[in-house]
Design goal:
globular, 9 strands, 5-stranded mixed beta sheet, Nucleotidyltransferase, domain 5, 2 domains, 217 residues, 27% strand
Length: 217
């Protein structure tokens, strides 16, 4: 039996599911991620959409997985993370989870992008009447991919000050998911993890819920 050769990326921290596949260890650009605007239909359509990209009989070819862990909608994020954990456990392959905000931060810290020169910056998502979900990011050569999550995304209540608020001392910008681009960021991080032979146990990979699951995002 040949060794598994594929990297699978799953991103569902918005209304759109993004699925991307790339051969492990390749320097070739990946194919564009497949994007499915499912909304609340994700619970029924997750597996069929995955099989459109990678049929189930090819799942044993998966050698490493990467998944966005949120913040995102409770159901969509939870189901995709559970699927990634199950596949990693059954296939006995590494799994790495990265927050959806970190994937955005990597885009914003690229040369020529909005936050390239900032040592620290915040990404923020406003929640009506509940406050702001925000996380802090910055360049760090020791971090996988060169951008570190300095503070995990969490909920700041409307009356709670935070450094990236309009009157705060640190820069911030809106957390806007780009499913296709963020899935490509997942692939890049997965390839880096593979090159460094990082173990990637599935047990610590959990969804990020800054708010109550009952409230959702």
């Amino acid at each position: 039996m040949t060794a598994p050769t594929l990297l699978l990326a799953l991103h569902s921290s918005s209304e759109t599911l993004a699925v991307a596949v790339q051969p492990l260890g390749t320097a070739e650009p990946p194919a564009p991620p497949a994007c499915f605007p499912l909304g609340r239909a994700l619970s029924n359509a997750l597996l069929p959409c995955l099989e459109q990209v990678l049929p189930a009989e090819r799942w044993p070819e998966i050698g490493r997985l990467v998944v966005a862990t949120g913040p995102g909608g409770f159901t969509g994020t939870r189901l995709t993370v559970v699927l990634a954990r199950t596949l990693a456990q059954q296939l006995q392959c590494p799994l790495h989870g990265f927050s959806s905000f970190l994937l955005m931060a990597r885009r914003l810290a690229q040369p020529g992008a909005a936050m390239q020169a900032q040592p620290r910056f915040w990404l923020a998502q406003e929640l009506l009447r509940r406050g702001t979900v925000a996380g802090c990011y910055g360049p760090n050569p020791a971090a996988l991919g060169g951008v570190a999550e300095l503070e995990l995304p969490r909920l700041f209540r409307p009356t709670e000050p935070w450094p990236g608020a309009p009157e705060g001392p640190e820069p911030s910008c809106a957390a806007l998911v780009d499913p296709a681009e963020d899935a490509l960021q997942l692939l890049q991080l997965g390839q880096l993890a593979h090159a460094q032979a990082l173990p990637g146990p599935w047990q610590p990979v959990l969804p990020i819920y800054p708010t109550s699951p009952v409230e959702g995002l």
